[in-house]
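User: Hi! I'm a student and our assignment asks us to look at how structure tokens line up with a sequence. Could you show me two examples?

Assistant: Happy to help. In each example below, the sequence comes first and the structure tokens follow. Example one:
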Amino acid sequence: SVVLSIDISGDWAVWMESNLWSGNYWHMHNMKTNERKTINSGADFSVYENKLIAHGVIMNNFTSENLATYNMDTGEIKEYVMELPPPIPGQYKYHLYEIFALDNKVAGTMYRENDIREVFFYDMVKCGKLQQISSDTEHDKKNPRIAGNSIVWEEQWPDGSGGVYYKLIQHDMTTGQKTTIASNLLDISTYSTWKDLVVWQDPSTLDFVVYNTTTGKKEIISNLTDGLAYQIAASANKIVWSGPLADYQQVFEYNLVTKKKKAVKFVPDIVEELRASGDRTLWNRWFITSVNDPLAKTPKFDAVEDKIIREGNLLEFKVRATDENGDSLSFTHPLAD
């Protein structure tokens, strides 16, 4: 099996696992209750609070042209019938591809067979027709996000020598204005959003850039890393990244309020994906998905009084501990049989 994608929001961490024999599955883990759910699926997804939002098949229901939500608390499934743009004569119809959910809003990409991706927006409260944001048929788009009242995405451009680079595009949903906010991102570059903010790393200077989509202001943060970050996530006034690229087993965190950097975790494998929600950070390292939860509490042991026995006799006593997270406990000791 291999983990294809991950996401985290609220108390839920979700990852999609692909198995050669049994197909694709979503695994959902509640970090507060330790509840675990698994359902079969084969679709791209996004998580917001207690809902998993996806296109494609959920438990053998619905189609790849519609959206659906799965309530991870109740198990309720709801379908949203999409009105995709009609096919152009002689071309294939559109299919949904990537999606990103925030509140009841969805940004994503859609594609025709053998065609480039275009960006769309969908309001799950108003429902109705899907809104196509981009219509440039020359440049592929990927990784759409919602930041404030804007849709942001990466757009592929040729570099003149057979390679490509990416522009970071902002589309203001109120004014309809399209703005290029970064123009030199690499194929391996990543960016993230949180509320009105967009965060990325400038590959030429290695500075982190924090851009406010509402005010248009940029904050440049220098000297956080001496190499290119491999994965970037933003949440709760912090930037989290793995890297630099030559050493991307290390996960770091920078607080935008306190202006302090700290090492979060050394991971003994490549960090493939990185997501953040509140104080929690989720990452995928090859076949293992891990979560760093600073809210988790260490079990507390009751005091053990001194014990006196004769030499050669068996020492037996009971230990007690409580866990503030409500987890069940088991006890082992390296000297015990």
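Example two works the same way, sequence first and then tokens:
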Amino acid sequence: IYDLNPIFFLGVVKTEMDNFADAINNFHFALKFQPDNPMTHYYLSICYSQTGDHQKALESAKTCMNLNPLRIESYVNLAECYAALGKFENAEECYKSAEQINDKFLNLYMSWGIILQKNEKYDESIEKFEKAIEIYSNDKILYYLAGSYHLKGDLEKAEELLLDLLAKDPDNLDIVCKIGIINFDKEKFLEAIPYFEKCTTNPRKYSKYYYNLALAYSKADNIKEAKKNYKKSIEYHPDSVLSYVNLADIYLEEKNLRDALRNIRAAYKIDNNSENINLLYGIILFENEDFENAFQKIDKAIEINYENVLSFYNKILSEYPDNFAYRIQYAYI
């Protein structure tokens, strides 16, 4: 009887089109005629999750499960709702209940592994992904499994899995980007660069990797390319505060105080409560002989995070004039 409701099906179509607001309206209208249709509540929960209303998603998921307590998808959906609200113990209970119903359900272990990964329980997430692979191996699960190994710190295993995936799908830029990041984490900066270069061939989707590319070039001492790609990062992401900060630092090293100031000011407009931004701002101002404002920024950096700024102390003491070093030293007393 549920399958005869055209408003429900319209909501499903809108869901598949990512038109979640309209889908929610359709499902609520459908519930006026069939208030006990568990599938309507199931899809309603999914739509609320996609729009960020996790509390309403949870309520709909609970209703769905109560209406059909043997439907394993209901438990998985409910677990994901609990996890989105930070209630991981409740999510774990739902996954365990689902496992008792059907321990051969692929999406159960896929979902469970992803939630464990987000909760930084990497060994447990690996266990769930491997359980999913036992049921049916596919590239998506292997990609997530590689992610857990990467986050755990097993870079070799993560790279091995990703290279196997890349051999099967060489144009998959998600895999390409991930391998680039792993090479960067292994401090193989020159090896990382070609992967990041390939990612940026599709800047509409992967423009965030201009920053990674710039950082890799910087680590490889190719400052010209680093500057070019930091600027590309800012072009696509005007709020990329670290791109401004790193550019300011480069210009400071080059004694180009005009561009150093321009970039650190841009970073400061985005985040004026970062101790590192205030500290770098102070150093650049001091180099520009604007001593009063330099000391104000340094004092603010110390106020924000004394311990972090203290770690820069020896560097400041060795690189900057005596009166500046003395002023910093006095602030710590």
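Here is something you could point out in your write-up. The mean pLDDT is 90.
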